[in-house]
């Protein structure tokens, strides 16, 4: 039996990187997955042939996107056990030069979109938890929720926001047997980082920084998300799970 047998999950950012690996892993572990990503992404092709994964094209920042996404999961699968909010974007500019547009875009996807999707999904998660004894929210933050780097003000603020949002969700939803936790990936080879990490001089620096001396792969983070989504995590809530190969162990 899979670790998510009989579960129904929404995974956002599921066309690429961590989200694609998570949708696939959740499905392998027995879940039925609504795989959400932007219409311009590869969401309609990347999971073709996987009968446990239903693609759903939506930009999570759209006004009616949360309603449509949750309704699609309920229409297609009848309930919702797991919401994995993973879609995210980065953007690099020094604060002095950062435009309002960049600040707003990064925060709109990484934290506002996440908040709005959580709010929309809570009634369905509560209903499922009443029937089955548990439901889950898992959010993707970053080691940049507590660390920083040049040019990452908007990204760091958004990811610290993910931490605050998730801990508060955990507090508010605990009495309904809904857990809320967040993963903090380190340096992961994905769509977001590929261009940089394909440069050997950049890749080597980041490999060397991590105690485990390698970049993370999307599956490394998917496995962390799986743990938090599974029944094994019944007493884990409001937790920050750092999955970084030891990148942030020392200053
Ligand atoms: N790659 C890393 O090193 C790293 C490190 C820490 C945290 N993260 C976080 O991991 C998450 C996944 O990123 P990834 O590394 O897999 O990158 P990725 O670019 O491969 O995947 C991100 C996906 O999110 C989707 N997305 C972006 N905006 C969206 C929107 N408005 N609506 C719907 N989908 C949207 C993209 O289309 C893309 O498919 C992000 O939240 C990112 O901030 C990544």
Attached small molecules? nicotinamide-adenine-dinucleotide
Number of strands: 7
Q: CATH architecture, please?
A: 3-Layer(aba) Sandwich
**Strands of the largest sheet, in order across it?**
3-2-1-4-5-6-7
The gyration radius over C-alpha positions equals: 17 Å
Overall structural domain count = 1
Strand portion, in percent? 15-25%
Low-confidence stretches: none
Report the mean per-residue pLDDT as an integer. 98
- CATH C-level name: Alpha Beta
| Helix percentage range | 40-55%
- Derived from helix and strand composition plus strand pairing, the structural class reads alpha/beta
The first-to-last residue Cα distance is: 42 Å
DSSP summary: helix tally: 8
The coarse overall form would be globular
Main β-sheet, in a few words?
7 strands, parallel
Report the order of strands and helices: EHEHEHEHEHEHHHE
CATH topology grouping:
Rossmann fold
Structure description:
It is a single chain. This protein is of the alpha/beta class. The mean pLDDT is 98. The chain is built from eight helices and seven strands, in the order βαβαβαβαβαβαααβ. Strand 2, helix 2 and strand 3 form a beta-alpha-beta unit. It has helices at residues 17-28, 43-46, 65-77, 100-132, 153-173, 194-197, 200-209, 218-229; strands at 8-12, 32-37, 53-57, 82-85, 135-140, 178-185, 240-243. The relative contact order is 0.15. The structure holds nicotinamide-adenine-dinucleotide. Nicotinamide-adenine-dinucleotide binds at residues 12-13, 15-19, 37-38, 41, 59-61, 86-89, 109, 140, 142, 185, 187-188, 190-193, 218.
């Amino acid at each position: 039996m899979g670790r998510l047998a009989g579960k129904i999950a929404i995974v956002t950012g599921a066309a690429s990187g961590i989200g694609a690996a998570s949708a696939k892993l959740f499905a392998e572990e027995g879940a039925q997955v609504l795989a959400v990503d932007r219409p311009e992404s590869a969401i309609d092709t990347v999971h073709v042939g996987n009968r446990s994964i239903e693609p759903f094209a939506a930009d999570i920042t759209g006004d009616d996107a949360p309603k449509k996404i949750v309704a699609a999961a309920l229409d297609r699968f009848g309930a919702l056990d797991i919401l994995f909010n993973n879609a995210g974007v980065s953007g690099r500019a020094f604060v002095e030069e950062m435009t309002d547009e960049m600040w707003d875009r990064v925060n709109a996807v990484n934290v506002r979109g996440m908040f709005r999707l959580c709010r929309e999904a809570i009634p369905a998660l509560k209903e499922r938890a009443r029937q089955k004894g548990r439901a889950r929210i898992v959010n993707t933050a970053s080691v940049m929720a507590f660390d920083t780097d040049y040019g990452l003000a908007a990204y760091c603020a958004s990811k610290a926001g993910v931490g605050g949002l998730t801990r508060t969700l955990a507090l508010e939803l605990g009495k309904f047997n809904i857990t809320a936790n967040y993963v903090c990936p380190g340096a992961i080879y994905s769509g977001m980082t590929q261009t940089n990490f394909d440069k050997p001089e950049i890749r080597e620096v980041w490999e060397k920084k991590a105690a485990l001396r390698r970049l993370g792969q999307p599956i490394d983070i998917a496995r962390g998300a799986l743990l938090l989504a599974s029944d094994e995590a019944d007493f884990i809530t409001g937790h920050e799970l750092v999955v970084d190969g030891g990148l942030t162990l020392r200053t």
